[in-house]
Amino acid sequence: MILMESSAARALAHIASQASGGPAGPSVRVTLHFHPDRLVGQRLLLDVIADDGVYRSQFETGISNGGLTAYPGGDRWRWESSIFGGAYDDRPGAERPKYGSLNFRGRRIGGSPRFGSAYLRLAPHVLARTSFCYPDSVFAPQHFGVADRLSPLIEMAEAGDRDPLDDYVEAHVHGEVHLARDVEALVLDPCYRKTATEAAARRLGCPIEWHDGFTLPVSELRRNPSYRGPEFVKLGLSLAEDGLLTAGMIGAAARTGSYDQQALKRVWHYVARFGTHEFKI
């Protein structure tokens, strides 16, 4: 049993008061997505996580694969104040929730790959201190859930007609996410096999698994200029090698510091959306 800070307990109670329905199935997991090959200062993100032994939120790291508004008065701060009934308003970043998704479709690529090619698959016991909303908190959602009152959110998501990158139930893990205690596995893209990223991943102390990977042919990239914009198609084409674009190629560009990170994020959206068979079934 994890002893939670009162701020986390208040936040969960606030969400539970708005939730209804029954629990999710026993096989459903929460996934925390990220890009494993990015740098924090001069160090690989996975090395930082390995040294810490915990997964930290944007309020602590200052990095994100979504919006960068996790600071007092920023959009993320205001959303959390509203969603969690002000429970975290005066609390430090270390106490704030970690964002992920409920992988209710059981995809090998995880619940919300728009936020990264890799993910931590959390152990079942973490569900007890996780809250949920649908849709994403950026859209000021009105529908919330906790572990034992979650089925309506899943039903809404299953019935929705959203872009595959928006097809997720947002999850908020309250309390520390400890790698050795709370993580079933780190799941990586096979483009990182035998790389420095895999070497860093081996230091985490949790099992490593591999999904089927994201590989985008440049012909498919050219076919979808309106998805994120022709300028990002052009950027993606400049990063591709041998007619293909992968998560590792985008990561290599990000580590040079020569590219706008928000532009690379949109190139990643192309790879995540059109570079996997799981969105084509």
Provide an overview of this structure.
- Helix content is 33%, strand content 19%.
- The chain is an alpha+beta fold.
- It folds into two domains: 8-210, no CATH class; 215-275, no CATH class.
- The strands form four sheets. The protein has an eight-stranded mixed beta sheet with strand order 8-7-9-5-1-6-11-12, sandwiched between helices. A two-stranded antiparallel ribbon has the order 2-3. It has a two-stranded antiparallel sheet with strand order 4-10.
- Helix 11 runs antiparallel to helix 12.
- The longest helix is centred in the last third of the chain and has 14 residues, at 261-274.
Summarize the model shown:
By secondary structure, the chain is an alpha+beta fold. The chain is built from 12 helices and 14 strands. β11, α7 and β12 form a beta-alpha-beta unit.
Q: Please give the share of residues in helix.
A: 25-40%
How many beta-strand runs?
14
Q: Beta-strand level of the residues, as a percent range?
A: 15-25%
Strand order of the largest sheet: 8-7-9-5-1-6-11-12
Work out the helix count: 12
Integer tally of domains: 2
Keywords:
281 residues; alpha+beta; 2 domains; eight-stranded mixed sheet; two-stranded antiparallel sheet; 12 helices; 33% helix
